[in-house]
Protein 1
Amino acid sequence: MERQHARYPFLDDARRAVGEANFDLQSLADDERVRERATERVERALDDGTVGNPSRDARVELLSYPLARVLVSLADEHVLTRKYARAEAATAHERLTDAESRRELKSARTERLTSEDLLAEFDLAGSVHADGDGYRVAVGTYLPLAADMWGDEWRLVNRALANGEVSISNTDLDDLLRKAIERRVAEGLPLDVPDTIAGALVGTVEEIRETLADLDLTRDIDTVVPERFPPCMKALLDSVQKGEHLPHHSRFAITSFLASIGMSTDEIIDLYMVNPGFGEEMTRYQTDHIRGETSPTEYSPPSCATMQSYGDCVNMDDRCETISHPMAYYEKAIDDADEDLTDWRDEEGDAESEKA
Ligand code: SF4
């Protein structure tokens, strides 16, 4: 069993290694260390969009992956499958792109996985070619991978297309590979799990369902009080309203946050519209995409870990120390308010009536 298998358990080689080691599901379900790590993978996917820190024991780390897929299957909720697949892909993507990891892996080349390895893994090597500073991708390969990526730049009309190939940057390739990993992880889920295994994992699955229920509570907020927003979202909203140019990840963060607290596309446009140079059409397109109205996916706002990695986590305060997601911050901030809070949408409505 190689360490690379534990680092990238979705690889065909890793799956083969698990198969050849003849581990049966019952022994995995009964192994406390494997079960704990598998549960952590799933819980952290819900909590902060990661799969947590790897176990130092490569055996536990590798075997926790198939067991995590079993847990996700038993919980059998679409949102959980999506979040789990995304978290596994985000971890692999981080390992692929993290400069620290690249340095570390120079001394452990057998653990290193490159973009080229992943292209071969997903049978994409024949349709993606290096081209100067970036790559060219066959349009038939590009379209399905880019279909549920967020952001205008993924639309084919915004890409240079020549001879049936789309030009992409190195970063774009990393993002498309992350999408390919996400699909590999989600492939075949939910699994058909034998009753005896389901019985052994009933308590663990119940805990995961409880975490999921808490998350759903967070999604039902539907109260807009900008003064109570987490510091990162206040800063991003401020930048939008001043008309400053925001990178895609920052615009995605604030827009998905506003959609998740119950704002409609029109309300988000109204809130942004303080800025006179504001692009309504683009915001409408992006917001509808995030809300899942013009895309196959409804997007959630990024976790604090992701916000930090993009440099969008700013002005942290004491409450930030107690949460791992901007939505959890906002939920607490609303709960902790001593006075009755006025929804921004009601204030706007009152102002309109006064003008009339
Ligand atoms: S810790 Fe989280 S909620 Fe607080 S500012 Fe950073 S990203 Fe926002």
Protein 2
Amino acid sequence: MIVDLTDDEARAALPLKWGTVEPGVVPGWVAEMDYALAPPLVDALTAAVARGTTGYPPFGDGGIGAAFAAYAGRHWSWQPPEDATAVVGDVIGGIRLAIETLCPPGPVVVPLPCYPPFRDIVALTGRELVTVEVDPDAEDAALDLGAVEDAFRAGARTLLLCNPHNPLGRVASRTELADLAALAERYDARVVADEIHGPLVLPGATFTPYLSVDPRGILVTSPSKTFNTAGLHTAHVTALDPADQARLRGVPLPQNHAYSPLGMLAARVAWTDCDAWNAALVARLDDQRRLLTRLLADRFPAARMRPLQATYLAWLDLRAYAVDDPAAAALAHGVRLSPGGDYHQGLTGHVRMNVATSPERLGLMVDRLAAALG
Ligand SMILES: Cc1ncc(COP(=O)(O)O)c(C=O)c1O
């Protein structure tokens, strides 16, 4: 059910991921997948384009709240009310809207490493950024709740949570999330949970939607990472308090208008008609994870990979090979990976590798990285 794109097809489908590398270079950087779209999406989008559905999006959520609630109920045994969701242009824009509209004034806590736009979005809201670091040598990359409490005590009132985590590939436990929720409540802080990787939890891990343990939390998500639809620009924000929902919907149009009718259609179809494809994708990513683990053990046993519990983004600690910038070295050998320092400034010797490709390309990436590390 998961169809690998050829290099030419991938170059046509993914202009950023493939269009920014020289021919012959394997792109294992930005979080997009080298797989054909799920057939229900192709059918729905093709028919919509044939109908000329390229006008402005409608007011309202176009049924996305109900479709997402049903998906969450089927997959995670948790279901927000159907009318708790507002559509936004993308997850990062949704996080910005959530901070500006729903979060009390005060600094924003961002755990590191983080998806780099988290830092930029905090700056754009004019709020102070407070970082809390995961020690790269820690056995478990759990959130440091002691450091989070220090930040709340010092005045921070918002925390950006990424669960499942990009780039660590980690899934937080229910207990850990409940402890965070208790801390946020004690300090009257809000947690904005980016759960874009929620449908990409791999066998062996269990995903807990943050709002299922914290009704004051704010969820921002999108089907775009799971279904490769980032360019359609549609995501959504869910808040359980009707007053919060009213605030989200009440913003002036220019503050939230960057979503598309094709993206709204894709979101509805993805959350409704693509469960079988989603399951096949998770099975394929599980195979890729197993293959990468084996290749790493064979080719560079001193590499340390964080357990990949979710996402298709493997976090590799290559410090044992004493190459400060392994992504730059890898590019010189024909594979583009994401430098660890992009996610945790000043961190050397790490890369993020996107494994959502064919087994052959994954093998090439590892071969070339091994050559780069000498
Ligand atoms: C954790 C996380 N949030 C957000 C995004 C981007 O989402 P969007 O393009 O909808 O802003 C990504 C993309 O990789 C991501 O990994």
